[in-house]
Amino acid sequence: MFVVYETIANEGEENVSPLTSTELRWYxxxxxxxxxxxxxxxxGSPVVVLHGGPGHSHDVLLGAFDTHYSxxxxxxxxxxxxxxxxxxxxxxxxxxxxxxxxxxxxELKVKQLTLIAHSAGALLAVGYIDKYPDQVKNAILVGAPAxxxxxxxxxxxxxxxxxxxxxxxxxxxxxxxxMEIEGLSDVTDFESxxxxxARERSIAATxxxxxxxxxxxxxxxxxxxxxxxxxxxxxSKIAETxxxxxxxxxxxxxxxxxxxxxxxxxxxxxxxxxxxxxxREIPDLVYRELDDAGHALWIDQPxxxxxxxxxxxxPVE
Length: 317
Fold this sequence. Notes:
Oligomer: single chain
Shape: globular
Number of strands: 9
Order of helices and strands: EEEEEHEHEHHHHHEHEHH
Largest sheet: 9 strands, mixed
Mean pLDDT: 90
Helix content: 25-40%
Radius of gyration: 20 Å
């Protein structure tokens, strides 16, 4: 299996080694002819970052861990079938993503992974733990759906991911209020959004994306992603191949590594009520919620988020 390196050096740097540069980009081919785009920042022991979606790119997480680059080397990658990692749709599945993560571990030549997983990436993390429990020493799940669905005696807690018309309307109203602030007061529905010139339409689409992800939608300029960053066909393939009513509780109960969950109290789609009902069943799981933070916690509450990540990454004596 070959690796192609592309070094991005700081201005003025010459003959920079790919192993010491500020940013390192490389490409990991899979055994079934897909290609994974990998991007590294920082130095030290590796932390592999799993983006969410499914179908989004890792770009949405760029900037989330900048303050930690002096202590750890952060390894981002696009999962197969997403923006930078081309792959035929028929080769995309939840299991193929698990195997890609194992291939990346081998390429990095580490015995055990430290993972930070956002959103649907958290399901990939626990799916990997289910299959390779000895290959993970620390898993940090951010903006994470619960590790299982409610059982028959707890159906009132609801499913891990919330699909609700009232939430949909709340997000719409947040978006429209911000668009009015930005001078897009003519946008009152999706039809009027489509009628905008390309530049304004892109701004409006980003604000809609931010209304889903942020407690404070006024920070929409800090949020990457949306539009071309998302592949709906990949999202569909992952959804089709996930267990319909997933339950990774047995795998996590047996897991010997560290496990931390960091959610925002202003989540729109992650069911916090279900988390509150079930997280204690996993021994030693550390569960945290950040005030006034939505799905992109690092934008809503950067200091709280940095502190939570630092505690989760600190080595345990």
